[in-house]
Amino acid sequence: MPKKISERQVKRQISEYFPWCPFCCFERLQIDVRPERNHDYVHCDNCGAKWEIDAQEKIRSVKLVTTSVDRKGKELLEKETEPKFWQNKAWLCVITRKTPEKS
Ligand SMILES: [Zn+2]
Predict the structure, then answer these.
(1) CA of 90 relative to ligand 1 center, distance in Å
(2) CA torsion sign, 5 to 61 to 54 to 52?
(3) Residue 60 above 70 pLDDT?
(4) Which of 41, 36, 35 is CA-nearest to residue 18?
(5) How far is CA 54 from the centre of its chain?
(6) How far apart, in whole angstroms, are the C-alpha atoms of residue 79 and residue 17?
(7) Ligand 1 centroid to 73 CA: how many Å?
(8) In this predicted model, what pLDDT tens digit does every residue of 9-18 receive, in sequence order?
(9) Which of 10, 92, 3 has the alpha carbon at shortest distance from 51?
(10) How many CA atoms are closer than 13 Å to the CA of 89, on its beta-carbon side?
(11) I need a surface site. Which of 5, 49, 79, 97 has the fewest CB within 10 A?
C-alpha cells in the first residue's frame, strides 16, 4: 500500500491547487488535513463550499462535497475531478472578478 505523504506536503499541495476559493475568490480557505483519516478537506467559510481531497503519494483527486450557498458547482457535486481543474477555476475566478467592467 502506498504511504500517504506527510501532512505538511498535503497542505502545501492543497494550497497550490486551491490558492483561493474557485467559486468566490475568498483567499482564506480552511485546509483540514489529518493523517489518521483517509481523506482531507478544504472548505470556504465565505461561500460554504467544501471539497474532499484524496491524497496518497500525491493529491490524486478532488471531490466537491458541498456546493456554495448559491449552488455554484452543483453539476460537479460528488464527482471525482483532477486537482488541476480547481486550480484553473480559481484563476478564472480572479480573472473574471478583476476584469474592469466596460461602460
Ligand atoms: Zn468560496
Answers:
(1) 10
(2) positive
(3) yes
(4) 41
(5) 11
(6) 17
(7) 11
(8) 999 999 999 9
(9) 10
(10) 18
(11) 97
pTM: 0.89
Pairwise CA distance, residues 63 & 29, whole Å: 16
CB 60 within 8 A of CB 68: no
Amino acid identity for residue 80 in this structure:
E
- Contact between residue 21 and residue 90 where contact means Cβ atoms under 8 Å apart: yes
Which pLDDT tens digit goes with each residue over 62-90?
999 999 999 999 999 999 999 999 999 99
- Can you state the angle between helices 83-98 and 7-17, rounded to 10 degrees? 40
Closest-CA residue to 19 (of 87, 89, 99): 87
As beta bridge partners, residue 52 has 41, 63
Mean of pLDDT values over 82-100: 90
Tell me the C-alpha distance between 21 and 89, whole Å: 9
